[in-house]
Amino acid sequence: MNNPPISEGKSVKDSPSLQQELTELRTEVTKLQSENCDLENSLLTAIEHGDLIEAELLEVNKRLKSEIIERKMAQATLQSILEIVYRDKSDLEIMLATATEHGDAIEYEQYNRAVETMRQSEEQFRVIAESTSMAMLVSRLADGVISYANTSAGSMLKRESRELVQHSLADLFYLKSDWESLQQQFLRTQSVRDYEIRLCTVNNEPIWVLASLHLLWLKGERVLLSTFYDVTLLKNTEIALRISEAKLREQANLLEQRVEERTRDLTQAKEAAETASRSKAAFLANMSHELRTPLNAILGFAQLMLYDQELNDQHKTDLQTICNSGNHLLVMINDILEMSKLEAGSVMLREKECYLYEIIDTARDMLALKAQEKELQFDFSIHPDIPPYIYIDEGKLRQILINLISNAIKFTDVGHIYVRAYPEVVQDAVARGFTNQHYICFDVEDTGMGISEAEVKTLFQPFVQTDSGRRSQEGTGLGLSISYNYVRLMGGQMTVNSKVGKGSTFSFHIPIKSLELFKEDPATKLFHRVIGAQSEQAYRILIAEDMRLNRQLLMRILAPLGFEVKEVSNGQEAIALWQSWSPHLIWMDVRMPLLNGHEAAAAIRELETNLNISPSQKVQIIALTASLEDLREEDLYLHGFNGFVAKPFSEDKIFTKMSEHLNLRYIYND
Predict the structure, then answer these.
(1) Is pLDDT of 639 > 80?
(2) Neighbour count for residue 233 (Cβ, 10 Å)
(3) For residue range 542-571, what is the model confidence (pLDDT) as tens digits?
(4) pLDDT band at 113 (very low <50, low <70, confident <90, very high)
(5) Helices (H), 597-650
(6) Does residue 549 belong to any structural domain of this protein?
């Protein structure tokens, strides 16, 4: 066996020193393995738990993984060398004696490479720790003394990082109880991740962090790696949000309490308003009944006396004054009651086809005498293009014209009153949904006192009178307000143009909803007195009225025409007389003692149904009412009435209503 040549400077006699050197080499390799393993565990743990996930460290992590692989290769190479060295102790000296210079160079090269790799790994670890934005602290597990702190830890705690070394980790926490809680959590799980806690800066200011604790092996010793991520801004924001949320909840609770209180107040106010409204309605109904009932007797008997041929002219003049004053009082009562209905929203339109010229003629005939007495020029002008037949609420249009013309005459002493009616087409496609809307326009022009600009602003409000109106001491201040609301209810608009001392012009326009013509011309009303009735049978008429004067008035109107008339004072008597006498028509007062008109009419209709009386044989029941609430035709019809006449009534209204429900023809005087 040829022995390998001994290298220069080496001999068998140097084998003990070489063996010593190999022993030291083995120790260094073991140490290198341990430290390398600790470093791998530290880096792998950091990567595993996501503590070094910043974007700028991704490339560093890749290089670290490559270096770990290289370290493992170096360890495997050194381990192989050690195995060869210890495989046969008897061959050690021979191996050392025959080792070539090249072989020695290989061993030292491997060693130097391992040392350099370790150095580079340590350096790389420091680079990672110093470049991260998280605070990283390494402390001994036994006593908690800090052995390493990165720059971010110093910045976070507002001190130099080297000042943290050799200090206890527990001193960094804001509250001792916080550190104790964190320790207990760590002892239970041996690892803590993202634990929300407070640290203390050098100025004793608390900062909120997410703490993570991990056990590591470093240089053969178990240590604690602590990482802290600053979330003070987020925490302060969260606290502020919680405070704001608490305040908002508190404010919401206060608002809810206020809403409940306001709702309770509104409910009470609503109940009070409804109570007041009911009281007002009841008051108005009672007042309507109490005022209209005696007024009905006054006007009725005064009208009957006017027909007495034995009266002298002075007595007739006095009676006419009574009638005029009564009618004026009736207008005032009607205005007050109508305004109340408008405010309550209970006024309904009752539209029908009517003859426009008749409406205008009625208003002119009623007011022409007043204009003549003041020697005013009173003239009507109707445009030829206005259709004579329109679909409208006849009564309200007539009332509007009467109110406006009456006011014009009242406040005009010299000059004229002109009433003009003309058509108008308004382009209204966008607002109303069709191309053209047809309107009828009316102007009432006078040369009277005029109205100031300041008074015009409140002219259409209820109970408001102009200065001239107050001086005249006439009216209620409701006529214009009622007319204005009627026009709006009909879909139109009213305006006024006035100058003090020169006169006023009230204008309004209302839409035309139908232009269908009557099949026949309306019969011209003849204002002659009825003096007789023509019929094929003698009609039995029952009067059910609790007021004796009203019963007498109806008896005086009906008896001279040949009707069989009987009277009762309450609803029970009316039912009893209907059963025994079978009248053809009943004039039924709505308000009566014991049994009112509603109840009596309903009872009669029920009896008729039980007796199987045919519709043509059923009694006609006409309501007599002087109350606001009883003027709802729908309610009257539901209780079995066939129609109604409002008090105070005139004899022509009585005869007209009877002709509608009985086969009657009247004889008039010439």
Answers:
(1) yes
(2) 10
(3) 999 988 888 888 998 898 888 999 999 999
(4) low
(5) 597-610, 633-638
(6) yes
